[in-house]
């Protein structure tokens, strides 16, 4: 069957599509708030119908007819297979049941260590230039999920030789440092940005450029990264989203709450209408 | 060692009362003491918003907040000057934005300095679980290799005495008061949650005092019909408060949908200190209690949130 590519799409939509492609059918997916939950929903509607989404509040395997507006949204338990506790779900992860965890951060280094705690700036941990929300469950996911997928925009202020604070360990100092520290999960398998995709060298565990998105060059990527980029043997071009994938994202997030600035102008009546439309569309 | 950690605290006599019904005002006034520690139920939704407003209304001071990922119940308490210390994994409004008061108190010490101790969601859960089990600590494979261990001296690392592999240890926590919102409860405090429980069952047991609030008060016979949903038995409970729509603007499973447009307005107001204080004047100090807050939100709006939720996730009991 011929694949029909979307005539136009946004960088955010492409990131959601790529994160969906990282999910394999049958995976138990630990998805945080935001674009990763859209990616996980998209995967379920396309190539991975048997994958299960888990959210930190304790909901497992929902099949919602609306966008999930957070990790404790009611959509997380809509038509789900189990609803329980946070400690049980995270214990299941520590036991090794979670196949893939979706994480993000404000800063990342070449071994995939992430900071979502604080940007120190001229200050320090105690008086930072910018305090971020904190780990939430990200540290737990980074340490114990079988693999993680990181989503982060490719910007020079985010890609650093050394992050200010390691909230979510990647491969620490590289090589076998992660296993030596006692972390049971496999660590990051991909870093998805708005310009390219990185994976990690099998031995040194250094970040490695594997593909650039349509319209981006290797040089464009190098400009945003302070260290000399490690390139895969063959750097490919990321396949563009299909028309079907983009249509599904737009149906799920019609008002652009995640994918745009829809929340700024969303009125109560429009919101209720959006939910009604979503229910009707996905009940068909 | 934090003053909230350590040995199991003696349980209190009010747990033996037969009829534990109180108003939110009276329960907060009786049990939440200046200088004490508190924990709320909820996780990324089902947040204890009415409870946070009442604590602010009563101008409580010097509290320590223990929490996995509090939203309004973290950010607003910080902005209102209620907290001297917070032991948290996360604080913000998720899709509706960052926590402006959280940022101001950490970055600029506004309205005053607050001691902040970082944990992760699971390890706050393990601390409450250790507290609920009457044990001093629990080991975990979280935290290892991260800077949470660098800056939080209460997290210890040791080699597992059986295998020699490294594990992190987190101390038990016994908050003075747990405030837990449930689907329904009887007058004895037998409390049922039909949605996710997050850390509620352990928070209720770890704490010295437990205040149950609920969408509905029912007969014990009704509780008995769905005994599997009882996550907190009355023997762990001091007070029962009937508190419908306690989580607004947040969702509560099988009851009402998330009022995200309201939250968008709220977080936009919170962007400046003045905007936050004006919001408190209007929505917290300007209302006598939660019922007045709900009147101000609008009964018709609340009914719509309830109706739409029933279309997606109808009550099945």
Provide structural commentary.
The complex is a heterodimer of chains A (284) and B (317). Chain A has 284 residues and is α/β, with parallel strands linked by helices. Chain A has one domain (11-283): Glutaconate Coenzyme A-transferase (3-Layer(aba) Sandwich), CATH 3.40.1080.10. Chain A is 28% helix and 19% strand. In chain A, α1 (11-21) packs across α2 (35-45), α2 (35-45) packs across α7 (243-252) and α3 (86-95) runs parallel beside α4 (138-144). The longest helix of chain A is centred in the last third of the chain and has 16 residues, at 268-283. Chain A is globular, with a radius of gyration of 19 Å. Among the domains of chain B are: 15-57 and 176-312, Glutaconate Coenzyme A-transferase (3-Layer(aba) Sandwich); 137-171, no CATH class. Chain B contains twelve helices and twelve strands. The model of chain B has no long low-confidence stretch (mean pLDDT 95). Chains A and B meet through α3, β9, α4 and α9 of A and α4, α5, α7, α9 and α12 of B.
What is the CATH architecture assignment of the domain at 15-57 and 176-312 in chain B?
A: 3-Layer(aba) Sandwich
Question: Could you state the CATH homologous superfamily of chain A?
Answer: Glutaconate Coenzyme A-transferase
CATH class of chain A: Alpha Beta
Quaternary state reads heterodimer
Strand order of the largest sheet of chain A: 4-3-2-1-5-10-11-12-13-14
Distance between the termini of chain A: 25 Å
- Name the pair of protein chains with the most residues at their interface, and give those residue counts: A-B, 75 and 73 residues
- What is the C-alpha radius of gyration of chain B, as a whole number of Å? 19 Å
The fourth-level CATH homologous superfamily of the domain at 15-57 and 176-312 in chain B is: Glutaconate Coenzyme A-transferase
Helix content of chain B: 25-40%
Question: Uncertain runs of chain A with pLDDT below 50, 5 residues or more?
Answer: none
Order of helices and strands of chain A: HEHEEEHEEEEEHEHEEEHEHHH
Structural class of chain A: alpha/beta
CATH topology of the domain at 15-57 and 176-312 in chain B: Glutaconate Coenzyme A-transferase
The name CATH uses for the topology of chain A is Glutaconate Coenzyme A-transferase
Q: Provide mean pLDDT of chain A, rounded.
A: 95
**Structure class of chain B:** alpha/beta
Average pLDDT metric of chain B: 95
β-sheet strand percentage of chain A: 15-25%
